[in-house]
Design goal:
The complex is a heterodimer of chains A (about 200) and B (about 260). Chain A is mainly α and about 200 residues long. Chain A contains 9 helices and no strands. Classes of the chains: A mainly alpha (about 200), B alpha+beta (about 260).
Chain lengths: ~200, ~260
């Protein structure tokens, strides 16, 4: 699906809701289940992911288009994207620590966590597979991450309510989380067919 | 086989790796934020149990607070004297000598001594048991023996032996977690040097406490008379030792009729 065919709104709906990273592509489940205990940490994680996914989409596109394609080394995309993302996150962390201490303390502990988040790697690979151009890549990264933010915030809200609910002993803790993740995935399944 | 393709691939990945490495090295020197190296050393010296008894969320936060001068260097209780010594050296501060503490169970009411009020067969929880008609044991301050303290102890220092919690003082780090969970307040923090103890807190008059437990203090005041140092007194029908005056001579231990004064 191309941006100029459907417009930015439908592009957003496609990236964030229809092809949601958590519920439709099943990527990034580790932070989704691991950091969704509290609403505040979930929001922090979601924003950090948004930031990193946008940036890595940009750099992955540049490397892919201007280095890998001319050298006919497209098959090296996965390993080079891992390298780019890891280096980029480290660099951004150092830069933020020096220049934007406020942002650093807000995102601080989440940034290293998402260095090898599969959703971050996934978005770059999906971008290349779909043949997106620069703007589409970055938008797909940011919108996809907003979908992730939505998913993790919804999950955190539900889990905070779960703390106070009467759950059968055998479902307490992680099992009920997995069940809820499955139900949310089913609910998001309703978006399928809205746009491609 | 296309040898140039292989060379390209190796060169590209190697080059990207080296480039990223150089970039990060450059960034590290360019954007380095001076971090107090004492923080890492403080973090090394504290116990590392992340128990939270210092009042900070985890050992990292405590180390940062010590370096900032907000937390006292005596804050890490599980670390004991060794940690305080190390921290005082790192921070260049004098530690006011803090006596090593330990948790002690002030009760001898095991299944043989204390009489049951009813048979408790419910969920294994002291808190739950303490809510049911007083408690399963006749003594209203007895150790309930359901093991809340065992589960709270992160250092594996407590065992339930014959219905009574027993603390291994070698393993106890005085983190106070067991003190917090005990619904009968049976466990108290005490200086490690106070080895003579009245292991009973029952304040009923003699008959009532004897009916409840064979090992209860019956307030006979024999220990009070035996003590040459004016260190033990019966207050509210229960003997209490003044740690400052006690010389650990053991005279009171010998005369106690219900053997509730114990020398460890």
């Amino acid at each position: 699906m191309r941006l100029n065919e459907v417009g930015i709104f439908l592009f957003f709906v496609s990236c964030a809701l229809v092809n949601n990273f958590i519920f439709s592509r099943f990527l990034g489940n580790c932070p989704y289940l691991g950091v969704s205990n509290k609403l505040s940490t979930a929001t922090g994680m979601g924003i950090a992911v948004t930031f990193v996914m946008g940036l890595s989409s940009l750099f992955a596109y540049i490397v892919y288009t201007y280095v890998l394609v001319p050298l006919d080394l497209k098959y090296l995309d996965t390993i080079s994207f891992i390298l780019i993302i890891a280096a980029l996150v480290q660099f951004v962390e150092m830069f933020m620590r020096k220049s934007l201490p406020a942002l650093y303390s807000a995102l601080g502990i989440y940034l290293p966590l998402i260095t090898t988040n599969c959703a971050v790697l996934g978005v770059t690979l999906v971008n290349m597979k779909e043949g997106y151009n620069l703007i589409e890549s970055v938008l797909s990264g940011v919108f996809g991450a907003l979908g992730f933010l939505l998913a993790i915030v919804l999950m955190a809200g539900i889990r905070e309510r779960l703390e106070l609910s009467d759950i059968p002993e055998s479902f307490k803790g992680f099992p009920i989380c997995l069940i809820i993740a499955g139900m949310m995935s089913l609910a998001f399944f309703g978006f399928q067919g809205l746009v491609k | 086989m296309n040898i140039t393709a292989i060379l390209y691939a190796v060169g590209l990945l190697g080059g990207m790796g080296i480039l990223a490495g150089m970039l990060l090295t450059f960034a590290d020197s360019k954007f380095s934020v001076p971090v107090d190296e004492r923080e890492a050393r403080v973090r090394e010296a504290v116990s590392g149990a992340n128990c939270g008894v210092c009042g900070y969320p985890g050992c990292d936060a405590f180390a940062a607070a010590v370096v900032r001068g907000e937390a006292p260097i005596t804050g890490c209780i599980p670390g004991g004297a060794r940690t305080i010594e190390a921290l005082s050296e790192i921070m260049g501060l004098n530690a006011e000598g803090k006596e090593p503490m330990t948790a002690r169970v002030l009760c001898l009411g095991n299944n043989d001594t204390v009489k049951p009020r009813y048979e408790y067969t419910g969920y294994k929880s002291c808190r739950l048991a303490s809510q049911l008609s007083g408690s399963p044991k006749k003594c209203y301050v007895a150790c309930l023996g359901q093991g809340d303290c065992v589960r709270a102890c992160k250092f594996d220092a407590i065992r339930i032996v014959n219905g009574l919690a027993v603390i291994d003082e070698k393993k106890c780090t005085a983190c106070e977690q067991c003190v917090l969970v005990c619904p009968h307040n049976v466990i108290k923090m005490q200086p490690l040097s106070a080895t003579v103890l009245v292991r009973c807190r029952n304040t009923q008059p003699a008959r009532g406490s004897r009916e409840a437990c064979l090992a209860a203090c019956i307030a006979c005041k024999r220990c009070e008379k035996a003590c040459q140092y004016d260190a033990i007194h019966v207050q509210n029908n229960c003997a209490i030792i003044d740690v400052a005056k006690c010389t650990r001579c053991g005279d009171c231990v010998a005369v106690c009729p219900s053997k509730c004064i114990i020398m460890t």
